[in-house]
Amino acid sequence: MIRKPGCMSNPFYTYVPGRTANMPDALRLLREAGFDTVDLNMCMMQRNASELCEDGIWEKAADEIGNTAAKLGITFVQSHPPYPRPSMRRKTVFDEGCEYNEFFLRMMKRSLEIDSRLGIPWAVMHPVSCRDIPDSSPEEDVAFNLEYYAPLLDLCEARGVGFAFENMADVDGRRRFGSAPEELIAITDAFAGRKVGICWDTGHGNRMYADQIPFMKKVAPRLVCLHIDDNIGDKDLHQIPYMGTVNWEAVMKLLGDCGYPGAFIYELALYRRLPEALKMPLAKYSYTVAEYLLNL
Fold first, then answer.
1. Contact (CB, 8 A) for 52 and 110
2. Which of 31, 64, 102, 226 is the most buried (most CB within 10 A)?
3. Domains annotated on the chain, with CATH
4. How far is 187 from 164, CA to CA, in rounded Å?
5. d(Cα 78, Cα 47) in Å, to the nearest integer?
6. What beta strand segments (E) does 48-179 contain?
7. What SS3 class is residue 161?
8. Are 211 and 248 in contact (CB under 8 A)?
9. Which of helix, strand or coil describes residue 19?
């Protein structure tokens, strides 16, 4: 059962080039807010906006992150590596964030090396849609995910890192592979016998379904990670629970009923434009909300 509130590492993170203390400083503030269970967010690596992208310092920076976490009593339970940009949002196949982009692939592999280095057990991955086939079938998409992710899993599985495939949400009026639970199940089946599971994002679920509970039930036996956030159903707002329309009582009941074994991890984005003086009070409030949910 879930015992403690957790959060991605991003709320207090600020990138200063050439500085290895960016993430450690963010972790110290997150711990001050109450959180000691953390998802190491490395999504900014796809934008070349992290000390972990810098060839001269990334290893030292990763070690400093690990050492700081140990001193603070923080446990990294999962990570969010850089993710491929949906095909309908790319200008060309060379667009930054595209899974075919050489820089992106290098950063993806580096993020998995960091997971291994820090002993992080799960890397949350976005399913990808089949290359060069805009109207690909689910079977073709599953085959492409197996082709694309198997070599990456080979890099880290032997060192204890597994993949948790995240439920997506259809965007721009077009189907996005991984939005349906059956597609997530098909990916995990394709990796049978390997360290692969599912991450459920409550915000994505709320965008896709008026009631996401029946769809969460379908993946519950394979659920190993969570992204907890709220919205009003149309945009991926990454709000604190009860600021949107997610049925939190039903979500928490399902997690309890299915014996979900993983962590409760916030994925929040509402810190980006806040003045510094308001970030800590909001982080502490979000911790209080998480405690409330875990006691339902």
1. yes
2. 226
3. 5-294 (3.20.20.150)
4. 10
5. 21
6. 75-80, 122-125, 162-166
7. coil
8. no
9. coil
Helices (H) and strands (E) in the chain, counts: 9, 8
DSSP category for residue 195: S
3-state secondary structure of 168: coil
Q: What is the edge-to-edge ordering of all strands in the sheet holding 162-166?
A: 223-227, 196-201, 162-166, 122-125, 75-80, 37-41, 5-8, 264-266
Residue-wise DSSP of 49-83:
-SGGG-TTTHHHHHHHHHHHHHHHT-EEEEEE---
- 227, two tokens: 């992204």
Torsions phi, psi for 160 (to 5 deg): 95, 0
The pLDDT tens digits of the residues spanning 61-111 come to: 999 999 999 999 999 999 999 987 665 556 665 565 566 688 889 999 999
Q: Residue 47 is encoded by which pair of tokens? A: 């934008």
Give the residue among 221, 225, 238, 222 at the shortest CA–CA distance from 77: 225
Residues in the chain: 296
pLDDT, tens digit (0-9, with 9 covering 90-100), for 122-142:
999 999 877 656 677 888 899
Threshold 0.85, pTM exceeds: yes
